[in-house]
Amino acid sequence: MHHQSLAGQWSFRQLNAKEWMPATVPGGVHTDLLTLGKIPDPFVADNEKKVQWIGDTDWEYRTAFDAAPELLNEAKQFLVCDGLDTLAEVSLNGKPIGKADNMYRQWKWEVTGILKKSGNELSILFHAPVTYITAKQKEKPLPGGGDILGGPHLRKAPCQWGWDWGPKLPPIGVWKDIRLEGYSSAKFEDVHVRQIHKDGSVTVNITASVESWDKSPLGMSVTLVAPDGSRLNTKVDIADKAATDIEVKNPQLWWPQGYGKQNLYQLEVVLENGTSTLDKLNYQIGLRTIKLKQDPDEWGESFTFVVNGVPVFAKGADWIPADSFPTRIADAQLEFLIKSAADAHMNMLRVWGGGLYESESFYDLCDRFGILIWQDFTFACGIYPEDDAFAESVHIEAIENVRRLRHRASLALWCGNNEMEQGWADWHWNKPEDAANQRLKAGYDRMYHHLLPAVVAAEDADRPYWPSSASSGIPFADPNGNQRGDMHYWDVWHGRKPFTAYRGQFPRFMSEFGFQALPPYKTIQTYAAPEDQNMTSYIMEHHQRSGSGNGLMIAQMTDTFRMPKDFQSLAYLSMLLQAEGIRYGVEHWRRHMNRVSGTLIWQLNDCWPVASWASLDYFGRWKALHYAAKRFYAPVLLSVEDDGTRMSVHVTSDLTSRWDGLVRWRLETVPGEVLASGEQAVAAAPLADSAVASLDFADKLTDENKRKSVFVAELWQGKELIASSVSGFAPIKHLELVDPELKVNVSLKDATLTFEISARTLARFVELTLDNADVVFSDNYFDIPAGAIVTVTAPLPNGWTLDQAKKSLQVRSLFDSY
Ligand code: BMA
């Protein structure tokens, strides 16, 4: 076999334009034009509007190349495009070789006989995607599926048409790898790696089918390399199919983040003919069992992921494409995002259906960091065509992507779509008197209750399929209920309910809920000039896609905080508000972990700089929510259920063995006078919530000192303070803070900065930032009780001195915001 990459420098132009311009493949029109300086950066100000013509234009890409002699020596040559975005016509040496119309499919065309030794020219014509869907939409209007109407007519990422957090910038181009592949006599058609766990040992089963075009005898040889470097081999003869087992006697298991190590094995599967290699595939696998436990119980039916026999409380977030232009996402950027998720103790991400089946690098990282993946098929919030051609295209797309990803240790579940069952059941899509509408509903039923589950059953029988998110699992029956299945809870935010509404919900699995914040001020500066830095300016509203989202933020902000004194304080408060709201929900659901089996925050990341529900912004900056997640997703959680003058202290443990420690609590005033205090030993049961103490301070609190006092709880393990929490008896805005006179002592050792921050009186939500450098602090947006010192660390920015760090440090707390 021989592969020849065709990635690299190409040329492109508007169809029939005179001038060809340099292009990068994989890549796309927007990023190519941007590199050439031919369009303004669409992420700045309202430049997005100035580049809308791109999606209404046809584009040509071409490259010239010589074919490697080794490639031409093979019996057959193929052009393989891992992804074309989206409506493409491909020609080689002037001869049309194929058409594409689904960005999620791999396209493979045989080019034997067309390919020459030298002077080959490959050209790809991309039709304007917006023009296409607009015309289709005129013929047959389909609601939803993106802001530019008609998106469901084309198999292209729904969010690329614009979403309630994303711009309307549908990319166009060769968006994945492109290459020539040559084979002699045979190649793998499909390889399926499965694992059977029994009595402490694991059988890795490899089943392959091959495509061969002569009668030569074939063999398959398999090598499994364990994390410690030890190797296991096996070899079998092949007819048109082959299967072989590798017995792993002492398996080093793979665990999700927080439950154990992420042991990974490397598997190589080789197709051979005597001693020569005909084809070779490599897989990274982790040995573990994964099940979705759905057992009837007193509340309905459980929805719990069980890994290696351990029920896992899923702590995580929903993932969207990390850039509107996915081809420019660097591996380092992906790694930063996935590592940030793991650093905040997340163990699950849901790859949301309005985006992509992600890249190999993405799943490699999830395997490595122990992040379970809930993978939606890529359909969201729309009604899709019901015709056979559409179903067939999706059928192939589903088989290809299931086959590509099913060996992954991290992959936990396949899900049909995002919020479309809700659409039919709850959003008035259903019109029983309208025959055309009922055909679309039947199309829905066929796709998500028959076709896709059949693909998963046939191609990946070891994994659960779930029809939609949210769903009860029973077609069209109460898809967003508390009794069974998963839930999306949007009454806080879209419904403008207070955060306390979260405590009224007991979903079996919360797969979406969220609250927006502005991104950090440094990020706002990249899109809004000083004169636009006002919450209701045209530019700030352009970078807000959720209806009157800025107003929703302000409204809830005035429920919680005092009016901010300036725009920067408002940006800071918006982040605190988001962090506080989500903390409130997650702590409640973790306290009810016997009933609720997971919380996924909408959303982890952003695809451009914008006001959104994300905890990490487009540049990867940690918003206050992400630091809060690091605290509220900790394996041992201290939380306080506040109810008027009553404070109930809980310790919730995701550890598999008993945890011993101590809770210390104080009722104290803002300046630090202790009105009451106590301590209580804790023996936290494994995988359970423990109610530690319930204290009513009614007799200690008057209407007046309620606004001057707080309840401080601390969790100690020996001499180490593990966690602390501050709760009030009045809304935070009514708390009578005084200047905490924050003092910071900064020191440096081995490229790590240490900050010791002390407060004379209670300081709430202390924020540390460094001008001119982005660092992740070990903690941020934390409280400091009166007289206490909090120590946090951060890596010294490259090339910096201690002095520079001291000079660029900015500190503020809630007291400074009004
Ligand atoms: C959910 C998601 C997204 C959306 C988010 C915020 O419905 O599935 O469609 O971005 O809410 O509105």
Strand order of the largest sheet: 3-2-4-10-7-8
Mean pLDDT: 97
Indicate the structural class: alpha+beta
The description of the largest β-sheet is: 6 strands, antiparallel
**What global shape is seen?**
globular
* N-to-C CA distance: 68 Å
- What are the bound molecules? beta-D-mannopyranose
What is the gyration radius calculated from CA atoms?
A: 28 Å
User: What's the total helix number?
Assistant: 14
The counted number of beta strands is 45
Low-confidence stretches: none
Estimate the strand proportion.
25-35%
| Helical fraction | 10-25%
Lay out the secondary structure:
Layout lengths: L1 E4 L2 E7 L6 E5 L3 H7 L23 E7 L3 H5 L2 E6 L2 E2 L2 E5 L2 E6 L6 E4 L9 E7 L2 H11 L33 E2 L3 E6 L2 E13 L2 E12 L5 E8 L5 E8 L2 E8 L16 E9 L2 E10 L4 E4 L2 E2 L2 E2 L2 E4 L2 E3 L1 E6 L11 H13 L4 E4 L8 H10 L2 E5 L11 H18 L5 E5 L4 H7 L8 H25 L5 E2 L20 E2 L21 E3 L8 H7 L10 H5 L6 H12 L6 H25 L6 E4 L22 H9 L3 E8 L2 E8 L5 E11 L4 E11 L3 E9 L12 E9 L2 E9 L14 E7 L2 E7 L4 E8 L11 E3 L4 E7 L6 H7 E4 L6
Parallel strand pairs: 25-26, 25-32, 26-27, 27-28, 28-29, 30-31
Antiparallel strand pairs: 1-12, 2-3, 2-4, 4-10, 5-9, 5-12, 6-11, 7-8, 7-10, 13-14, 14-17, 15-16, 15-18, 18-19, 20-23, 21-22, 23-24, 33-34, 34-37, 35-36, 35-38, 38-39, 40-41, 41-44, 42-43, 42-45
Helix pairs in contact: 4-5, 6-8, 12-13
The structure holds beta-D-mannopyranose.
The site of beta-D-mannopyranose (BMA) has 12 residues, from loops.
